[in-house]
């Protein structure tokens, strides 16, 4: 039995990883070590990594059988792998090969290409833009005022963005990312009006999901009305965001996009929100489709969960080294460091800060402080009965409102005030278990009538984009009985406008009394119940931080506190070479 077969039999690699190694053998691979590494780099890409570092292979072998581990450690020294480089299966990137070895990192060719393209494009675009600095200072003073007591990080970020062709703005919840960007866009329009009074620049807003795009649209629409600007400048500020896939003209059947380097987007400035959710292939496609003259502003929270697919692009772009003044990309990055949502007596803010510190002592101090906006419900990870009881109590106002036949708009608003978030889909405390259990509890405790899947009050979340309907991944709707037809319809708030759809027309969807933390990105709720399940590799610092910071007014921690403490010490480390390519440039 070959080494790859052993790995497959013991469940250490997936079927696709195994057959990739088999395919290499069929193409003439004579090195069993290279076959194993090929399966391993394929498996790691499925875990979100862009490559594997040959110098750290021992970490990947840790769960392997001893005999296989010893064999691989002796046969996979970096210099031995480098000796396998040829021009057919493993190359240096100069020619198309299935695998690429570059600076001690082993890649699948397409990820290596994406990484190189993203780094090269961003570095090429990280140039200053000719600016009338006196006019800029006046505009900054008008919109941000003059703070002589402390650094105004919003002002710094806006100034950075209008003076660079590409800018990254990272900040936690409540730091004013949308406010900053709205004012930055106004300043950009003022500068462009001064340079070319008769040309109206094209500004586009985008985000990875429909929910995030809708929130960006609503936030900018609200923020712009608080600005004292001329009507023509206000009119130039966009209010309608879209998903990145729709912006690029995704063609799922072709695994490509309508817009590309050969057919670039018609845009002068593109703002992308929730950039932490953008994976490496999508970022490569986006940068390829941007015209050379266009500017790009990426907004997000570098501390949040990385993208579901491969890469941690925003985190890599924000990984500023200790000597930033000497780095080409440094002037393009700005951080918002002051939270206006979480004041000094906020437990949510303190807990988020403690989790990010990676120190269990700091987390324990927050939990023991008695903050009003934090509630702790200790429970064993095998107990979901108590959790269902908690959900019944917390969702009671919503269930009663449904029974009272309140209007769709009111029900959508009420449902959005509370959400249960889970770290994982499966398991005793996973969403696939909790949602059916909660529905059964609704029948027994509230006499909710369920005829099949559909019932009044069923909340559903769209899980696949459908541009023809205007429904996108992450959109949440409420099911209600149509009094005229006697059939169920699902109501959505689409950018401030109510829309209803028959259940048969909906794209892929699922019940959403509980959702995963991943799915909650780009959303906020007044209250969040964060389920702390079993301590496993899924629970990470970024996952609990993201879950905690979805709450605006109260965060309820349910489960084993040891899971929270363990996750605090497990930052997500995705292997890639993007940070080195960006920050190694001087």
TrEMBL record:
In the record, biological process GO terms are: double-strand break repair via homologous recombination
Which reaction equations make up its catalytic activity?
Answer: ATP + H2O = ADP + phosphate + H(+)
Q: What is its EC number?
A: 5.6.2.3
Question: What is the uppermost EC class here?
Answer: isomerase
The Gene Ontology terms for molecular function here are: 5'-3' DNA helicase activity; ATP binding; ATP hydrolysis activity; DNA binding; exodeoxyribonuclease V activity; single-stranded DNA helicase activity
Q: Which InterPro entries match?
A: AAA+_ATPase, Coronavir_polyprotein_1ab, P-loop_NTPase, RecD, RecD_N, RecD_N_sf, UvrD-like_helicase_C
Q: What else is known?
A: In the RecBCD complex, RecB has a slow 3'-5' helicase, an exonuclease activity and loads RecA onto ssDNA, RecD has a fast 5'-3' helicase activity, while RecC stimulates the ATPase and processivity of the RecB helicase and contributes to recognition of the Chi site.
Q: How does it assemble?
A: Heterotrimer of RecB, RecC and RecD. All subunits contribute to DNA-binding.
Check the record and name the PANTHER family matching this protein.
Answer: DNA HELICASE B, DNA2/NAM7 HELICASE FAMILY MEMBER
Give the record's family classification: Belongs to the RecD family.
**Identification of the protein by name:** RecBCD enzyme subunit RecD
């Amino acid at each position: 039995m070959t080494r790859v077969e052993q790995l497959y039999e013991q469940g250490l690699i997936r079927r696709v990883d195994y057959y990739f190694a088999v395919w290499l053998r069929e193409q003439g691979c004579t090195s069993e070590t290279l076959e194993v590494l090929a399966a391993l780099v394929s498996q790691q890409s499925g875990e979100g990594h862009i490559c594997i570092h040959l110098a750290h292979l021992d970490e990947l072998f840790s769960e392997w059988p001893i005999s296989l581990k010893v064999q691989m450690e002796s046969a996979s020294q970096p210099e031995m792998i480098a000796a396998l480089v040829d021009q057919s299966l493993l190359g240096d990137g100069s020619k198309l090969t299935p695998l690429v070895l570059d600076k001690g990192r082993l890649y699948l060719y397409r990820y290596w290409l994406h990484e190189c393209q993203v780094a090269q494009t961003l570095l090429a675009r990280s140039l200053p833009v000719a600016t009338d600095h006196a006019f800029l200072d006046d505009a900054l003073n008008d919109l941000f005022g003059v703070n002589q007591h402390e650094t105004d990080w919003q002002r710094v970020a806006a100034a950075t963005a209008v003076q660079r062709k590409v800018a990254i703005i990272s900040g936690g919840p409540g730091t004013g990312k949308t406010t900053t960007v709205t004012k930055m866009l106004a300043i950009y329009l003022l500068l462009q009006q001064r340079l070319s009074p008769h040309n109206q620049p094209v500004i586009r807003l985008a985000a990875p999901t429909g929910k995030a795009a809708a929130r960006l649209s609503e936030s900018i629409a609200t923020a712009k009305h608080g600005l004292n600007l001329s009507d023509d400048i206000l009119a130039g500020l966009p209010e309608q965001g879209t998903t990145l896939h729709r912006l690029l003209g995704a063609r799922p059947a072709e695994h490509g996009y309508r817009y590309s380097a050969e057919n670039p987007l018609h845009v002068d400035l593109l703002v992308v929100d929730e950039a932490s959710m953008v994976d490496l292939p999508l970022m490569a496609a986006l940068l390829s489709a941007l015209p050379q003259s266009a500017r790009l502003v990426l907004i997000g929270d570098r501390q949040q969960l990385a993208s579901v697919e491969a890469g941690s692009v925003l985190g890599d772009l924000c990984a500023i080294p200790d000597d930033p003044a000497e780095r080409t990309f440094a002037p393009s990055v700005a951080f918002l460091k002051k939270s206006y949502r979480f004041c000094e007596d906020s437990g949510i803010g303190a807990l988020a800060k403690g989790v990010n510190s990676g120190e269990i002592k700091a987390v324990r101090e927050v939990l023991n402080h008695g903050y009003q906006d934090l509630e702790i419900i200790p429970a064993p990870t095998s107990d979901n009965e108590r959790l269902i009881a908690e959900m019944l109590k917390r969702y009671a106002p919503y269930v009663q409102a449904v029974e009272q036949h309140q209007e769709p708009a009111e029900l959508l608003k009420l449902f959005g005030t509370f959400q249960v978030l889970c770290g994982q889909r499966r398991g005793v405390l996973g969403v696939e278990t909790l949602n059916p259990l909660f529905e059964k509890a609704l029948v027994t405790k509230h006499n909710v009538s369920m005829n099949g899947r559909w019932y009044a009050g069923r909340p559903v979340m769209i899980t696949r984009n459908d541009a023809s309907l205007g429904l996108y991944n992450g959109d949440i709707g409420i099911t209600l009985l149509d009094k005229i037809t006697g059939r169920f319809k699902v109501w959505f708030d689409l950018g401030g406008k109510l829309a209803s759809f028959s259940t048969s027309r909906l794209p892929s969807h699922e019940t959403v009394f509980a959702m995963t933390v991943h799915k909650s990105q780009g959303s906020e709720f007044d209250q969040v119940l964060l389920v702390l399940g079993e301590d496993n590799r899924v629970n990470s610092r970024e996952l609990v931080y993201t879950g905690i910071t979805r709450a605006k007014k109260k965060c309820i921690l349910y489960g084993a506190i040891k899971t929270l403490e363990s996750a605090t010490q497990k930052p997500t480390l995705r292997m890639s070479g993007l940070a080195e390519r960006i920050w190694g440039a001087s």
